Fold each of these.
Amino acid sequence: GAAVIRVDGSRVYGMDAEIEKKMQSKLDLFFESSLLKWIEQVIVQTLAPPDDLPQSLRSGIALCTLINSIQPKTIKTINTRPIELMQVENIGLYLKACWKLGVPSADLFVSSDLFMRKNI
């Protein structure tokens, strides 16, 4: 069968291509755009790139800022250096804060999924 190109630029074939096509068909770009605008309004910051929600949230900084906007001082330290390990840690801090604020575990994702753009 024909190759399918993932968001990260890699090509997949066969069963992986079928799964990727199914995941891509579930993308709701209007919802993603609306969510990005809402986050920007809450945190009073413009996120980049404006047309790629996962990339905009990948460092975890906006997510941690969002939590602190909703519940001040929930996340004490947000890592701002562009180091992958610190970015993944930010995402983890966000997820832990969501859980503490009452978001069910089943509604959360895994840090690496956002960071690596998998299962999103």
Amino acid sequence: MCIRDRSKAAPKRGIFVMNKWAPANLARQQQSASPLLAYAHRCSFSKKTVPVPSMGDSISDGVVFELLKKAGDYVKQDEIVAIIETDKVKVDIKSPESGVLVKLFAQQGDTVEVGKDFFEIDLAGAQPAGQAAPQQQKKQETAQESKPQKQQPTQEKPQQAAKPSPQQAAPQQAAAQQKAQQPQTHIGGTGGVNRNERREKMSRMRLKIAQRLKDAQNTCAMLTTFQEVDMSQAIQCRNDFKDEFLKKHGAKLGFMSFFIKAAVAALKDQPAVNAVIVGNEIIYREYVDLSVAVATPTGLIVPVLRNCENMSFADVEKGLELLAKKGKDGTITAEEMAGGTFTISNGGIFGSLMGTPIINPPQSAILGMHAIVNRPVVVNDTIVARPMMYLALTYDHRSVSYTHLTLPTIYSVQISVVAVSLKKK
């Protein structure tokens, strides 16, 4: 017969929790709560704070121009969340990963600094099932708009105007007679005078442009000299080779490449115009980085073509086409607009016949092109009609002296030389 010793206690049922022995009922509670703890642990590490990215050299802050997403929206990787406007460009702020936008730390119109928190995204957030892709939504909206909507014809009964009573008609007739007897003091048209006003806040880029233009006037001793150039040979050369040029290089042959090639030759001949004043010194650059003014929907920007002295006609035209596209799309960077040594501005595309361009600091000069107009000129003692263009060179008289006043004439000569050389090629 086996006698069981009951002095020994039965083993306790449980598990180790946090390196301590826990009873079975507590263990079951811990096990049931573990999914919640795991979810909370996962959520705490799934949220990511995205700072304001670097937007180029010398740019430390910007203004939130537009918010394309709001808190609670699902964003995909590389999808644009907001647009920040700086002194030079507009920068697209994209989401580094897909997830749900939890919080925005700035609103539209706020000034944000580089490196500061901009928005928070939950990487564990799933895309809502009912949220269709933007292209699908656009197609659905287009399909709905294309369907004709049948409208039920409605017949309205003509309402008879209520006739005023004799008591009401008497005062009205008296007021009309009194108004007719009063003298008319209104001067102008028969309609009402519009005195409405509308105010708009200047953009960050426009404020910076205005400041730089005024600083140039206050700092530089600006003078402008004018010259005219006969565009006959350049026009003839362009007409002869534009189709072949487009077929061979995939870019259109414009007049700007003629002037850029002429500018490079002229700046090499007169290095003072390609120089810059820094403190008590003048720095002469042996390279030519040309800033070319490009009109965009948000204002005038001046991107730079680097090392134009090494460029061919095709390189110039392709570079200009790329910069113009970036400027219109708003994808041009601050680095692409910094460091120019000389500027060319073509006001002729707006029909301007003559003007005085303002220097783009810290540069020392700027060349203004204008419209090509047939004018009577004297050639070999004979008056003939020629396509002429006025050139305006504004320069800083502190570094460019009177000995450089023949520069527009150099441009005129070089335009002809470049045109002839292109024909030979």
Amino acid sequence: FITFANVEDSDKVIAAEPHILDGKKIDPKKAFPKVPNSKYVTRTKKIFVGGIQHGTTEKDLQEYFSKFGNVTDVTIMFDKITTRCRGFGFVTFETEECVDKCCDERYHIINSKR
């Protein structure tokens, strides 16, 4: 996390694209405290998926999460050296409402793993 002295500076940094870190394009986002009923609470179209089993494909995630709505992007993170799955990834939906539906379910079973 990076803390800025004022909101305007953080807005300028986020607006200045592309953002490259270690030769890869990254997608920086503002971080907001997770305080209920806070003016800083935001909605998102992207979710973090942890505990991905080795052998699970992006297609598997696409098919599973499609039941909550239109999935626009799926990324599984891999180790650069070993090329093995790092066990987590991200799913991006078309709308925030899809994320809400997905998060209403506490546990998700993908390829027989919770």
Amino acid sequence: MSSHLSRVPPNILVLTDDQNEFKKIKLFIQEILGKNSYTIYNLTSTDLHKSSLWIPSCRLLVSSEQFNLSEEALDKKIKSFRGYLSDGGKILSLPSLNDNLERDQKTFQQATLFYHKDKYLFESKYENDSSLDKEKWQNNLVQGDELFYAYLSKENKGTHFISKVFIESNSHESQLFLNDLFIYLFNEYFQLKQIFDSNNLNLKENYIIFSKNKLLQSVNVISKYLDGTMNKEAKISLETTKAENFDHKIYFDNLKTKSMGTIIMYSDLVESTMNSISNLVSSLESIVVLARQQTQGQGNNKNEWLSPIGCCMFTLYLNLNTNNFSTSRICLLQFAAGLSCVKAIKSIANCEDFNVGIKWPNDVYYDSKIKIGGVLVKSSIMGNQIGLKIGIGFNLDNQHPTKCLNSILREKNLPECSQEIFLANFLNFFESYVFLLSEPNFNSWLKFSTEFQENWIHQNKKVRVNFWNEDAEIVGINEFGYLKVRKSDNTEHVLQPDGNRFDLMQNLIILR
């Protein structure tokens, strides 16, 4: 695999304009590779030509091929394909499931596969392209068959693999054979590995509550506060005082907060820690929900967050009062959460100068290249109460699908970090930033922004702002967390985090 692709995030894009077809293809890929292997997104034909947005973050493009495209649409599609191939990209073309295509059938080892015999529309252009070589797919299951072949770029490692076979079959045996075929294709040809968490079959959404001060907040009292706010399937165990995969003693020994994190709920498996509690009752100031694994991890902008075992995944449910915390500063808490992740790492022994920083607005990166953490904040206001859900997903000790913190620490002969210590360190810093931002004066903001900008990866960097079509210099953030940039004419402007995104690979600020 090329050095470029080794840095690509674990994203698989499915090119189709039909949401139902996307869901079918996504489910098929997840059955082959596992749910926590790669994040699978839908790429529409409208967004296909916006190559600078998707090429840097795509490990594999799966294209559903139709036969009713106009010449203009086909030309645009081929141009995008060639651009991706020239960058060393990998493409897999499949016959559309929703195009009423004629289906022929062929038998392999007592398994019947359905296929469409016609060449895809772009192939006539490929066959006349001297920069591409055509080769048959050599494998033990369907060796040398005309249903599978590839076009290879002569100049680089770009590959466009052609499968004429539909991913649906008419029997269990045939589907198993089809799955084995694509397992071999993904593993050996595209170097995409199967990643299954074998232990998750026995995990249940069964919470254990730990309280640092049992005299003031007993488990029984806390469980009554939470009655009616939990998922119906979730249960709270009142008998168990120990979790096999979470050491609450180590956690509380490292927790130095006044109140934040003193109540924690742990479960081996949850749908999402962001959904474990609907709304935190006003009687509780805060509670942390920690999970060993999530089935539906959430990221920003409705993205998925892969949640394999070893990833540190938790949500801090927090109640603030508008009498003590200005609503204008709520937006800064996502920045405080990202900063707390960075400080939690740097507080590990001998890690003061560890090369980790914040990518605006709320991602955590190692060496400005590898994303190892993300923050998701949701807020609501009712009367004078501010309800917050602050979700953290951090690649702490998971060996897939990307690098994790502990693997980097091991490479540098530095001490590893447990989830108990990382979580406690995070809360120690986050509580201090909440206290700081609750002070309604400019000095508190200045102190926070200075520390934030000392720990991000953008200071004084030159970037390209695509909607201005010109370069600008990053100079900081303002009191609302907006990005401040300076144009060549020395005028300063601000960019909202919800309206723009930072493309690190392209050093580009892009309008969402």
